[in-house]
Design a protein that fits this description.
There is one protein chain. This protein is of the alpha+beta class. The chain contains ten helices and ten strands. It has a four-stranded antiparallel sheet with strand order 1-6-7-8. A two-stranded antiparallel ribbon has the order 2-3. A two-stranded antiparallel ribbon has the order 4-5.
């Protein structure tokens, strides 16, 4: 039976990995498990101090990783925001960089669950309280982001001939885990990018850019066909791609291919929904326009289309002041650029 209480899933305090709390159930096994976890963390810190990172080796590992075409293709994301396009390093690049940095770890964990009677459109659902983190064991620098994940999914239903989006509760533990993991991925990326030095991220982006320019031996038509196939897996047709580009797909230039690749990464990593970039027939694309004219007034001459948002539209402030955290939440996790 669900209650409004919070059920703790860990003996560790969310903000302090070394603080051991008393177990609700007591017993020697819980105490041994907690002590073993603390001992493991302290041992890893001691090892990191004994074998400090070499920045020359870090740079070499970073360049080696960024020279791979598969990583370069999935290294950056791009998503529409306030009439402009926001770009940045993807979770795939952040994972590669934290591996090259060494003596650090990043991930997420579920720390508690509680019942929300108003969730799932009033039907009630469980909510997971999660924590994403990145910890540099050598410098003892740690970044954390706490977040809540309602156990719901969107479901399209038709009422009176109209499509209605409803939220239904999830019951499968596998679905719940995948949902939490998807919600955690961009927060892990944000934590990693706060721990890593800025110069490493900038050099990695430059290295992946060079790999994209020089590393793909395929012809441009072959790249376009491959990209079209990948988009089709997420329900994006050629007509939708051409509407986004404003011309035939065969006329796509290399810079446009690179941009489409970044958009695909955003969709594949769950940072943006397909319908936000490629609206379907039920949700036509929103374009900046003049205020509606009353029926009695003569229609003004059509103004040329621009990519700028109207003055009243402003980009929302990022959640917690961290770039990339103000993107849609209700998106399934899809994977990386390569399939």
């Amino acid at each position: 039976m669900n209650t409004n209480t919070t059920n703790e899933l860990s003996n560790q305090a969310p903000g302090n990995p070394f603080a051991v709390q008393a177990s609700a159930g007591g017993g020697a096994l819980a105490a041994m498990t907690s002590n073993a976890a603390v001992t493991s963390v302290l041992a890893s810190i001691w090892i990191a101090k004994q074998f400090p990172r070499d920045l020359v080796e870090v740079t070499a590992r970073m360049n080696q990783a960024c020279s791979r075409l598969t990583l370069a293709q999935s290294a950056t994301y791009a998503l529409p925001r306030g009439g402009t396009t926001v770009e940045g390093p993807s979770i795939r690049l952040a994972e590669a960089l934290i591996g090259a940095w060494g003596n650090a770890e990043a991930g997420w964990k579920e720390v508690a669950r509680h019942w929300d009677p108003k969730g799932a459109d009033g039907s009630g659902c469980n909510v997971s309280e999660c924590l994403a983190y990145c910890f540099d064991k050598e410098t003892n620098v740690r970044r954390e982001i706490a977040f809540s994940v309602p156990h719901t999914r969107d479901k399209n239903e038709y009422e009176d001939g109209k499509k209605v989006m409803k939220r239904v509760a999830l019951n499968s533990e596998r679905d719940i885990y995948e949902l939490c993991a998807n919600m955690a991925s961009r927060r892990i990326r944000a934590c990693i990018l706060q721990v890593l030095p800025g110069w490493l991220t900038e050099e990695a982006l430059n290295a992946t850019r060079k790999t994209l320019e020089n590393g793909d031996s395929r012809t441009l038509p072959d790249i376009i066909r491959s990209l079209e196939v990948k988009f089709r897996e997420y329900g994006v047709s050629r007509a939708m791609l051409e509407a986004n580009l404003g011309h035939k797909l065969k006329e796509t230039t290399k810079p446009e291919v690179v941009k489409l690749g970044k958009v695909f990464n955003s969709i594949a990593d769950g940072m943006v929904r397909v319908k936000d970039v490629f609206p379907d027939d039920d949700q036509p694309a929103r374009e900046p326009s003049l205020p509606k004219t009353p029926a009695s007034a003569p229609a003004p001459k059509a103004a040329p289309r621009t990519t700028q948002a109207p003055p009243s539209v402003t980009a929302p402030m990022p959640e917690d002041g961290i770039p990339g955290l103000d993107v849609p939440e209700d998106v399934p996790s899809f994977g990386s650029f390569e399939h």
